[in-house]
TrEMBL record:
Transmembrane segments: none
Pfam family, one: DUF72
PANTHER family with a match to the protein in the record: UNCHARACTERIZED PROTEIN YECE, UPF0759 PROTEIN YECE
Protein name: DUF72 domain-containing protein
Source organism of the structure: Kribbella antibiotica
InterPro entries recorded: DUF72, UPF0759_sf
Amino acid sequence: MRLHVGCAQWTHPAWPQPSRDKLASYATWVNAVEGNTTFYGIPARSSVENWAAQTPPDFRFVMKLPQTITHERRLSAIAAEFYAFAAAVEPLGLRNHAMWVQLPASFAPGDLGTLAAFLRGAPREHRYAVEVRHRAFFDDPRVAQQLESILAETGAEWVPFDTGTLFGRPASSLAERDAWMKKPRVARRAVALTGFPIVRYIGRDSVDETVEGWTYLVELVHTWLTEGRSPTIFLHTPDNAEALNLARLFHSTLRQRLPLLEPLPEPVSLEPPTLF
């Protein structure tokens, strides 16, 4: 029984980490990370080899496709760019848990044919996880069903970005106000399409509010685990200072209810961070 948890990054000024090998240090705290840096360009293969060397074989990277593919070309005529990216991240092996197809808010229901063509033609040796932000996918059940049908047909997962807790009350800090401006305000989803659901959860500056807001997610992940699924949950806060601790807390909350859940590694750092 495996639950993977992680953050949007593997280094942060608030986290006690060595000056070198920050990813290796991060990987002793949690067992997954969002590959956001690849959105800005294809990484050097040598960099990816270093990422692999710093992480255990069962660590999960969810690697975001470069913006050239998803935002500029909008999934059309991108074979060369896709294969270049796939070749660059090949050293990760099975650590490359999923190719993350994050689509812009302008990618609308009328573009579903393009998404379907991309997923149907994409190499089967990779797993695919799609994040949409256009409101129609969340507000119109008919449109949501169309997207789910395409994803189910191609074995891809829908990645929800749960901002419900963030938008639960007005922003009260600069970090929260910045998140309010940048994060999508969409309805929560509680449906897994594959055996490997992925959820991105963003809380508040307040640890208590963040934990209170994820109560439903604890129940949902508990159900997924008992069904035999292997979810990956990414924990965010507006400034991410406490995200590393929160990811471990989320995992421990599930392990209290499911003692057979495989534990996270024992942290190795300069000094332990605190939630308080």
